[in-house]
From TrEMBL:
SMART domains: PMEI. Pfam families: PMEI. Residues 24-172 form the Pectinesterase inhibitor domain. Belongs to the PMEI family. It comes from Vigna mungo. Keywords: Disulfide bond, Signal. SUPFAM superfamilies: Plant invertase/pectin methylesterase inhibitor (SSF101148). One of its GO terms (molecular function) is pectinesterase inhibitor activity. This is Pectinesterase inhibitor domain-containing protein.
Length: 178
């Protein structure tokens, strides 16, 4: 079978395939993590991937799975806080549950997954950014004029961890686009 592809297109396709399909080395992981806000967190996260032959796509998948698990655990925490909080706290946590639930962060994580499966790496970036917005709306309120809720629970810490995972997804999605 004769191909009508120009040599330039052939080389580009091979480069694109290679950059997303080959295993990422430890030095490449360090380079990736140096682009995040918390490189040590990123290194711990990506080096905990059990697949030693992970490609950029595999690392992104692993990181999305991690984000999903952290969001799911945070939803469980929020439900517990609702069950045991005072009325002011319950009101805040119910709003947070909306921001973390299937119409919020959890749904946006699922959409991030869908975009990765489609190879839409810009879509991965946009969807991961939406998750960050969902989390920020829970922690800081829907609008800048909302008074901050003093939250002594573990929710702000959980949210910060999820934000760090999302930061890694954002960097990976940018690398996948190039």
């Amino acid at each position: 079978m004769v191909s009508n592809m120009s040599p330039f297109v052939s080389v580009f396709v091979i480069f694109l395939f290679a950059s997303t399909s080959y295993a990422i080395s430890g030095s490449e992981v360090k380079s990736i993590c140096s682009q995040t806000r918390n490189p040590s967190f990123c290194l711990r996260l990506l080096m905990s991937n059990p697949n030693p032959n992970a490609s950029l796509v595999d690392l992104t998948q692993y990181t999305i799975n991690t984000a999903r698990a952290k969001v799911t655990n945070t939803i469980k925490l929020i439900n517990d806080l609702i069950a045991h909080g005072n009325s002011n706290a319950k009101s805040h946590y119910k709003l947070c549950l909306e921001h973390f639930g299937s119409d919020g962060a959890l749904g946006d994580i699922d959409y991030t997954q869908e975009m990765l499966k489609k190879g839409d790496y810009q879509g991965v970036n946009v969807a991961a950014s939406a998750v960050s917005t969902d989390i920020e709306d829970c922690i800081s309120g829907d609008s800048p004029s909302d008074p901050p809720f003093h939250d002594p629970s573990d929710l702000p810490k959980n949210a910060a961890v999820i934000e760090s995972v999302l930061d890694v997804i954002l960097v990976l999605s940018k690398l996948l686009r190039h």
